[in-house]
Structures are given as C-alpha cells and as structure tokens.
Amino acid sequence: MTCTTPTVLWNDSCAIGELTYAIERGAVGATANPVIVGEVLKKEWDLWKERIPQIIREMPTATEDEVTWRLIEEMSVRGAALLRPAFEESGGHNGRLSIQTDPRLYRDSQRILEQALHFDTLAPNMIVKIPVVGAGLQAIEEVTYRGVSINATVSFTVPQAIAVGEAVERGLRRREGEGKDIGSMGPVCTIMVGRLDNWLKVVAEQQNIITNPGYLEWAGVAVMKKAYRIYKERGYRLRLLSAAFRNHMHWSEFIGGDVVISPPHLWQKRFNASDVKVVPRMQEPVAAEIVDGLYLKFADFRRAYDEDGMTVTEFEAFGATRRTLRQFIAAYAELVRLMRDYMIPG
C-alpha cells in the first residue's frame, strides 16, 4: 500500500518496539493518547520502571499531574525521534508523533491552546491532538495560525470533519496573509471510524433496532468516504486519518486515497498476514442499500452522515463523543493513580 498508492501508514502507538516494526514496513507517523500511554507502560515496563522514580526525584515539588505529563512527554519525544528521518524527507508532511492535549480540558480553548503550543516545542516533528468540540475547534484555528500542525481527534462524523477543515483553512489563511510559512505543516483530521460503528451498535441495543448486522460494520466507512469526497471538492489542505479499527474495511476500503491509515500493532500484523488484496477502493462508494438501511433506521447515523447533521454546539453531546471523552479522561486518571503509587507508596 505505502509503495503503490498515495495512502500512508501511521502506527496507532508510541511503543518503541511496535513503532519500530511499523517503520520497517513503511510507517511514517505514530500517535499517543492516555489509553495508548497506559498500554505502552504495560508492554514496555522494563523501559520505564526505573525512569519513573527518576522523574519523581528530578521534580521534588511536582504534583501527580506534573509527573504524569512529564512521562507522557518523554514517551512522545522518544517516539518522535524514530520518525525524524521520515519528517525531514517529507518536509514535514509526514514523520510526526501525535501527542494529545489533556482530555479534561475539552471545554477550555485557552488552556488547550497553551498546552498545544508547549507540546510543539518538545520536538520539531510533533503534531498535536485536539478534540473536535466547540472549544477544541477554536483552539484548532488559533494553533494552526501559530504554525502548529494539528491532529483533530474525538471525531466521528462528516459535520465534525467539515468543521475541522474550515477551522484549519481559516488558520492557514490568516498565517498566509501575514507571509508566514505553511509549507512545512502537516495537519490531519482523524475519523474514529470504528467508534462510530460501536456507538450505533449501542443505539441498536438501547432502541431495539433490528437491522442487517453487517450494515453496522460500514457506518464509519461511509462517513469516511463521504468526508473524503467533500475534502477533495473543497480543497481543504489537510488529510483525513482513519483510526479505531474494528474490521479490515477500516483499512482496505480506504486504500488509494490521499489519506492516513493508523492501525494499532495487532491490526497491522493481521493485515500483513491476511489475503485481502491491496487494491484502490477509496473511490468505490458504499452500497446504496447499506447507506439507506443505516440512514432510515438510525437518527445518529443521519447526524453523522449529513453535512449539516449537527451543529458545532451539538458535537459534545453526540454519543460517541461522550463515550470517548469519558474513556480518555478515565485512562488519564489511571495514569495519575499509577504515579501516585510511586510518589506515595501504600
């Protein structure tokens, strides 16, 4: 795929071993979030079990939160170093490590902005993840204007993807208007395709909706393909990124598009061992009967699929958004708890 199509591979983890595996197979990017950082600690504990006490000693007045963020930042910087060659080769278009802003700040654009600007100083090839809710979109425009490449996250729908495209364009135009460089920037907008599928399955259970079970595997694919068509028509200067893999179509259906595919390590191994043919499918529409079946029965699919399905003020209340924010915040709290156990042993 990475050799024969415009589609590029990023690794949905900053674990050194997993990222090395991915880079050897063409990956040119990676990501971190509170869930991923917790998983990395479990997988690569030998790399961090001595460093964490050192951080605590080096920061004698630090709070649990400050120690936690030092750990997240160091883990991200290590991953970024592995991607530096791809960053330099692509002129900033690829080779970036995504680091996520504090998920608890999703209502505070100013604090998101301040953290994003700080993260941008950690390494030249950082890309900053910001949630696609009202405050996040304000921050996305402003940090783009300031020259920070963003990865829009907590995003599942066509309206969210459009809002991100517009916010990034406003930031780029402001920057261009002042004669500032944009050529080395590499913004992306994530669509968490599998999380939309998951949410509609929850809705089906809650509302006793009977539908062809196979249709629910296509919801995120349909949204991603529609958003991609709109991006190309409107000329937005950022790429879409497919994340939250739940089936092979979250990779195979997007091959050939000028997009980023970001599977976790286990899905990469499955794909590499599979007999799914690597052929362009991005331009192939999802079957009309599938889209119609989802559209007629699920109000939340209509909200996700229609360009005007939601307003910006409604993004925060969307079911997949609520569930994902809660998971990210809970994962962050678990990291803090782990640091507390080191700082105040029981």
Give an account of the 3D structure.
The protein is α/β, with parallel strands linked by helices and 346 residues long. The chain has one domain (8-341): TIM Barrel (Alpha-Beta Barrel), CATH 3.20.20. The protein is 55% helix and 9% strand. It has helices at residues 16-24, 34-43, 45-48, 51-58, 64-90, 109-120, 134-145, 158-177, 193-207, 219-234, 249-252, 265-273, 288-297, 299-305, 312-315, 319-343; strands spanning 8-9, 29-31, 96-100, 126-131, 150-153, 188-192, 239-243, 260-261. Strands 1-8-7-6-5-4-3-2 form an 8-stranded parallel sheet. Strand 7 (239-243), helix 11 (249-252) and strand 8 (260-261) form a beta-alpha-beta unit. Helix 2 (34-43) crosses helix 16 (319-343) and helix 6 (109-120) packs parallel to helix 7. It is globular. The model has no long low-confidence stretch (mean pLDDT 96).
Which key phrases capture this entry?
346 residues, 8-stranded parallel sheet, 55% helix, 9% strand
Structural topology:
Elements: E1 8-9, H1 16-24, E2 29-31, H2 34-43, H3 45-48, H4 51-58, H5 64-90, E3 96-100, H6 109-120, E4 126-131, H7 134-145, E5 150-153, H8 158-177, E6 188-192, H9 193-207, H10 219-234, E7 239-243, H11 249-252, E8 260-261, H12 265-273, H13 288-297, H14 299-305, H15 312-315, H16 319-343
Parallel strand pairs: 1-8, 2-3, 3-4, 4-5, 5-6, 6-7, 7-8
